[in-house]
Specification:
116 residues, mainly alpha, elongated
Length: 116
């Protein structure tokens, strides 16, 4: 049987570990990478065939990694109150967790294939 002090230490240790891993402090982001914004990809991005390679490079650099998707999914599961306290941030996490920025990026890359 686990004593209450040991049980508390185990639960507290797990909570601290999960919080520190999902806070972003445990990752080393690429300083040149700019994360994709759904609104900009959906309505603000315009194809320019004269700058095709630049746009391809930019879109490829904006992709969300699996780690970012997993962290966003963890935030959704561990902080459900953000739906009411920070609805904008919650929606961003929903988009990232389910890969929506990558879907828009794939769409634009597909359209750029047809540029001369």
């Amino acid at each position: 049987m686990i004593k209450p002090k040991h049980k508390f230490a185990i639960v507290f240790g797990l909570c601290v570990t999960i919080a520190s891993l999902s806070s972003g402090c445990a990752t080393s982001p690429d300083p040149h990478r700019v994360p994709a914004n759904i609104e900009h990809l959906n309505s603000g991005f315009r194809l320019d065939c004269s700058r095709k390679q630049e746009q391809i490079d930019m879109l490829q650099s904006m992709r969300q990694s699996r780690d970012e998707s997993f962290e966003a999914y963890l935030r959704l599961m561990m902080q459900p109150w953000r739906l009411f306290s920070a609805p904008g941030d919650h929606q961003i996490d929903v988009d990232i967790a389910y890969g929506n920025p990558n879907k828009y990026i794939n769409y634009h890359l597909n359209q750029l294939r047809y540029c001369p």
